[in-house]
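Task card 7
Instruction: Convert sequence to structure tokens.
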Amino acid sequence: MDHELLKIVWWLLIGLMLIGFMLGESLDVGARVLVPWLSGRSGEPLQQAPAAPAHINLLWLLALGGTLALVWPALGGLACLVTGLVGLLVLLRRSAWQAARPRAWRVLAIGLLPAALLGGMLGNLLLGLPFSRCGQAGMQFHGTVGGLFSPFALLAGVVSLAMVCQFGATWVVQRGGRSLYQSASRVAGAAGVMFLASFIVAAIWLAANARGYSVWAVERHATLCGPGVWVVLADNPGWLDNFQAWPAAGLAPVLALAGTVMSLFACANARSGLALLGSGLTVGATLCSVGFALFPFILPSSVQVSASMTLWSAASDERTLGTLLILASVLLPMLLAYTLGVSLKGSQLLVVPSKRVEKRQQRHAPSSIHGDHRIA
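Output:
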């Protein structure tokens, strides 16, 4: 396979891995964050935490971090730093969940950080990061940590948080029982409305204020892929050029909004399977929208346009990409099959509610129901 075509294939595969991680993260949020909060909303210690779907999100995160470091070595330690930080937050969430006397508010506060952080990082990519490169000196960062928490980055964090909570809540609706159905449906509805509002505001913000970049070819190779000799220009208003050049790419943001509307409609009409499908579509389409907008940029620079890393300049050599593609063709289907098997068949939520919820269930449940409630 041609080297330039390999670069595009790996761009698609890395996007698939990111979607897989976000879906796994959503399942973990639904099991480890939302269910404890719904079972102990007053903040009292939970009697027992739910059994979450195995370590799906950590597996996808490990695959994503390793792939980024090997496929795009120009990112240096940045890929390892980001994936390591997100992994640390995921482990902290598990520690809070496994504590001797876990409290719902603590699990909620810690559990939502990874999704918000990833959304903020994608928002910073759309704004551009303040770094430069000069010869062999490597990458130099010119900003501050506080500068990464700009208003648009925080808005992107809200978008990410809303879509993750919506998918996690609809998964609880699908796998849950009567004790959690109504409350999980309300959370899914609130998250869906929040996603619609924040996503639309973010799109308008980008179109009105954000400066995007584009790659202009100076000389082309004899291949269909890759611009050959190229320069970076800051002439892409709101990162809209790709959507104008490829009208089919415009389906991604439309599907993101349509998936949320579908999920809201399904929750209102007690169709849990359709709600889960719609919220999952929202996660995938939202990430595809960001990918289509940025292509072929991987790490845009806001202070030195020419230092921006693109798909053409950051990738490994042809032999490395080809070898990794062979390995991925074997390992990725296995990881995907494991994820589907655990999340749709093998995983169950076992909730022993707090005393307050337990009394309410005994008061409203039929006399034939006793003891623990299993979410099938």
